[in-house]
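Ticket #4471: structure export looks truncated?
Reporter: QA, pipeline team
Priority: medium

Steps to reproduce: submit the single chain below to the structure queue and open the exported record.
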Amino acid sequence: MPQNETEQVIYRMTITVKGRVIRRPDGRPFRIVLRGNKQKQ
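Actual output as written to the record:
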């Protein structure tokens, strides 16, 4: 298995889906995992 995949985990209080902002009613943040292949950031 090549180890050239990068994985980034961020936490957001709100997310936007199809132009609508979604917020959890209990106030917990969303866990978003961004993974890419040899991505330069």
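Status: closed, not a bug. The export was complete when the record was re-opened. Leaving a note from the reviewer for reference: The first strand starts at residue 5 and ends at 12.
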